[in-house]
Amino acid sequence: METLNTSNRGYLYGMVAVIIWVGFILVSRAGSLSALGAADMITIRFGTAFILLLPFIVKYRARLFTPKMFVLGGTGGVAYGFSAFSGFEYAPATHAALLLPGLMPIVIAVMAYLLAGERHSHQVKLGILLSSIGIGALLIETLISSTATLKGDMYFVLACFFWGLMTVLLKRWKVPAFEMMLAIVATTCVMYVPVYLLFLPIALDQVSTSMLVSQAIYQGFLAMAIQMVCFGKAVQMIGATKMGALMALVPVFASILAIPLFGESVTVGLIIALVSILLGTFVGNLPRRWWVSKVAVVA
Questions:
Q1: Contact criterion met (CB below 8 Å) for 42 and 85
Q2: Cα 133 to Cα 35: distance, rounded to the nearest angstrom
Q3: Domain count, the chain
Q4: Which of 25, 13, 9, 18 has the alpha carbon at shortest distance from 245?
Q5: Apex CA 172: angle with CA 170 and CA 174, to 5°?
């Protein structure tokens, strides 16, 4: 019974992480449709998180402001944030829903192979291939139909590159997850906020208070803190494989909600990408024993 309870709680944590991920895509797109620019969104996200996490940042400060941590903040904070939020300015939420959670595992796997020498099983390679087909279909369709949207898609691709690089470095340097979160928040604020206040256009006074509050709560609290905790708990309780499969729900839910909320259209490329990424995610995350049993039956 204890195992069942632990499993159920793990799935609950996992679904909370998925729902927050879906909301992040929708809230970010809503922010980009207002007067807020990428520069403002980064400040809201990391500035809010910095204030909320300040007691922990002070406590662990000796470990957070090192050269390696600044590299993590530069890639997973400033570079990823600017790329992702710039993408939301040009591309629809449906594209973000497919490219961000769909392309990230591919980029991480490729960079882990190139930079860390990690070897991947045939099932992981098959999953990457299936997801890549869908992403390729979406990008080709966008290239033909809209250069403005393609610009947004390229920003999402760039965001995945920076997040993948940070992930590989994180694993190589063996930084604990909680310290990683604190370091990204702290170093991003130190590097970016002064530049934002002194040199970049500020549009915070051009949107309603409700928009600022909703963005601050979602970006700085839910997406930066709660989601990471829930994701980590889910991985501990149900395993990385099952959590990876749950993440395949993000593009489905986000796309379904984005279409009526923002009036986004359903295209052939979008459908192909959605199906391919779903298949690729599930295939890549199936337990190895499942493949072994199937091969044994065929043999």
A1: yes
A2: 35
A3: 1
A4: 18
A5: 65
**87 and 155 Cβ atoms separated by less than 8 Å:** yes
Residue-wise pLDDT for 174-224, tens only, equals 888 788 889 999 999 999 999 999 999 999 999 999 999 999 999 999 998
| d(C-alpha 59, C-alpha 278), whole Å | 41
Burial status of residue 203 (CB atoms within 10 A of its CB: 0-12, 13-18, 19 or more): middle
User: Amino acid identity, residue 294?
Assistant: K
Read off the amino acid at residue 255: S
pLDDT of residue 299: 43
Which pLDDT tens digit goes with each residue over 54-76? 999 999 999 999 999 999 999 99
Q: Where does the chain have alpha helices with state H?
A: 2-32, 38-59, 61-64, 67-73, 80-90, 93-116, 122-145, 147-173, 177-199, 209-215, 227-238, 240-246, 249-262, 268-285, 288-298
Contact 109, 34 (CB under 8 A): no
Interior angle at CA 193, CA 188 and CA 197, nearest 5? 165
Question: Which amino acid belongs to residue 118?
Answer: E
Which tens digit of pLDDT belongs to each residue from 227-238? 878 887 887 787
Indicate the residue type of 244: G
Residue pointed to by tokens 């449906």: 94
Tokens of 131: 């997801």
From the list 220, 266, 238, 242, the residue with the least C-alpha distance to 20 is: 220
pTM here is 0.86
Burial class (CB in 10 A: 0-12, 13-18, 19+), 263: exposed
Q: What's the domain range around 68?
A: 2-298
Convert the pLDDT of each residue in 137-167 to its tens digit.
888 988 888 778 899 999 999 999 998 898 8
